[in-house]
Amino acid sequence: MTSWTKRIPFKVDIAGIIEIMGASLYSRADTPIRELIQNAHDSILRRRQIDLTFLGRIAIRQDAEAQTLSFTDDGIGLTAEEAEKYLGTLGIGITGLIRRGRINTAESARSDGGSLIGQFGVGLFSAFMLADKIIVESRKSDGSEAVRWEAGVGTEVELSSSSREELGTTVTLVLKPEYADYARNTELVEKAVREFADFIPIPIFLNETKQRANVINVAWFDPTPEAESLELALEDYFGETPLDVIPLRAEHPVALAGALYVTPRRTPGFATDTTVTVTVRRMVISRHVRGLLPDWCLFLRGVLELNDCSPTASREDLVRNEKFVEVRDLIEQKLFEHFEQLAVNQPQKWQSIIAWHRYALAGAATVESRLRQLLSQTYRFNTSQGSLTFTEIFDRCQADPLFESDADYVIWYNSDRRQERWANGLFAGQKTPCVHTFQSFEETLLSAMAADAGLSGHAIDVRVASPSAKNFAETILAIRDVEAVGKEWQEFFSALDATVLTASFQSNQPVMAFLNERRQLKRTFDELKKEGNIPAGFQRLIDQQLANDNVEGNEVLLNRDHRLVGRALQQSTKHPLASVLRLLVVSALNSAGASVNTEAYQQQADDLDWIAETLWGKKS
Fold first, then answer.
1. What's the predicted TM-score (pTM) here?
2. Alpha-carbon span 176 to 15, nearest angstrom
3. Strand partners, 318
4. Which residue from 236, 240, 254, 235 is spatially nearest to 305, judged by alpha carbons?
């Protein structure tokens, strides 16, 4: 067998490359406008590095008749050699090479290229998304002759001399018919300029107008922005009034500039990604960069200049590299410092932010320890003693050593809104408050804060306010000698689906009812399941959470020291006092928020009839 070797050049299908760039690399049809503005920006900045007095400008012109869109700059320009080498080779960009120190030019010798934007050498080719043909005419500032570079969607590039006299470069796009609107719709191009290049430090003019198309200067880029100007700038840019403004600036360990603000828009929970507008060397990368702000900052918006971060090849996002992580960590550190100082120096403003974004903050604090530490001193729980922070609650929850041998602090809570008034009555006069955790995450937050406090060596127990909870009857209700009622009475109350107990407590209160919310929930789901009203996917979730739960029912305490209850319990269940007692039990369950079934309601009607007949007979 004869061995052989053959060397062949790469063959590039330009049309195929452009199709890939349009479908996969870039997400927007107006991307070429951004890319060509970036090229013009870099050309002007390279000329500034030679001539420190030079300012520069970018002009964009639409020609509806010729169906062209052109970009002109008065920057450093290109020689014929540079045009041949850099414009016709996909992936080799002169700006990127300067920034990486791969080539040495007069202007790059004076600078590290840190203010230049370009990097990948694909920007010019993105124009083929819109154009059938690209024409570049350029004259370099060193006195070289002007050059014309022309290419269509093919493999051939035509290079020729040019009669251009002005220094700088003009890139003209001969638009495809389907994109001809870019040659006649001024608003379409203006929108792209504002979207991508509103802040670059070079004026952009559209269709030879004297009014600049881009803003350039905004307060959040100032080294020491004035507070009111910064707030007004953010309000104007984002269209909403900030609740609080957070200027951010750092040089080490990474460069960071810009400002964030607390949005007045309430976030729908705390499971959404946080986003922020990001610029690199003043060019907007994206208005929705994810992952830079901490997960607990869903209520923040703003603009950040991140010159140490690297854009992706599409320049529509940032590369998730080591610098990105450093910036993210620095932002979180500065945000914590700001809010911690705000809580001390401007407590009313911080309380307003908590009130406005209560769910987002409290939900996030269940998993974020430093935020939880801040909220433990500032987040106010609803309690039987009014609105209290965890620190205030903790100070009032010292355990009674007569009953508690394993806990230094006991925190009682109620998670059922229907029992709020009842719990407030039970805890009235108590030094210890009952914390109402009506939102599911508040119960978790309370437990997490208690666990944090326990790290200091305290033994802390968080318990639901229920007679079945350890020492609740003795320490809170002052209840003694709890025992189940006899079999006859248990059967008498069986329709109420509640465990009935007797005990001795305050003589002015005949009956107390305690709900088990989980049992109520299970009963409701069971009824819906029988009716076939629960979707299959939701039913599987219910089964996972409740089906195998041995959920105890509601509890009722009968006060044997109460005059009526004591006498009734001494009688038979056929005595009229038994009916009165059952009515009291139903009333207590209803007041606590329990749902009483049909059989119990029928018994209630029978009890009323029995009592009426008895009283009528006694009267006659």
1. 0.76
2. 14
3. 311
4. 254
